[in-house]
Amino acid sequence: RSRIQENAPKNFHISLPGVLLINSKSQGGKSHLGHCIMYNHRKQFAWGVSFSQSGFNVENLSYVPGKFKHIRYSPLVLKALLMEQAKLINAGHKAPLVYIIFDDAITDIDPEDKVLKEAITQSKHYNIFILITTQSINALPTWIRENAFQICLFKMWTESAIEAAYRSYGQNHGNVKEFK
């Protein structure tokens, strides 16, 4: 058994399908948490793709087969996944649950990317789970932050990150200071 397997929380519930956003500074544990989540739910996924700037490292995202690992985000790869799911759904079949992982790779995207917007806003309809890890929650477009089914916020160090998180998730707090 690996260290990930031994340390993975056993009863950590996530919304499947859905969008999970994990924010942390560099080396803050976001990829480790993502790995634990994927390990615990591995039997529920048929397949998936990952986009990770550190995808060249074979140990990173070791649970994703090499041919499905991409170092840079590609709308064409994402569109192909959506089309495959849509083809099954339109034929009257239940599309299998698939995953899309953005491991510190989403802040480079075009905020008007229609393919990504479709995947994130229609994740339940396509039966996809999207895991987003980022160091810069404030760099994500509002439509990504606000379509997350669940979020995990580690300590944030900048006022712009805290304010972006507050604007999207702080509705139960009177102001930014209380949210901190």
Describe this structure in words.
This protein is an alpha/beta fold and 180 residues long. The chain contains eight helices and six strands, in the order H-E-H-E-E-H-E-H-H-E-H-E-H-H. Strands 3-2-4-5-1-6 form a six-stranded parallel β-sheet, sandwiched between helices. The termini are far apart. The model has no long low-confidence stretch (mean pLDDT 84).
* Range of strand content: 15-25%
How big is the Rg?
Answer: 16 Å
Shape: globular
Widest sheet: strand order?
3-2-4-5-1-6
Largest sheet: 6 strands, parallel
Mean pLDDT level:
84
Helical amount: 25-40%
Q: Which runs of at least 5 residues are low in confidence (pLDDT < 50)? A: none
Q: Could you tell me the number of beta strands?
A: 6
**SSE order, one letter for each helix or strand:** HEHEEHEHHEHEHH
What is the count of DSSP helices, taking H or I runs of 4+ residues?
8
Distance between the termini: 38 Å
Structural class: alpha/beta
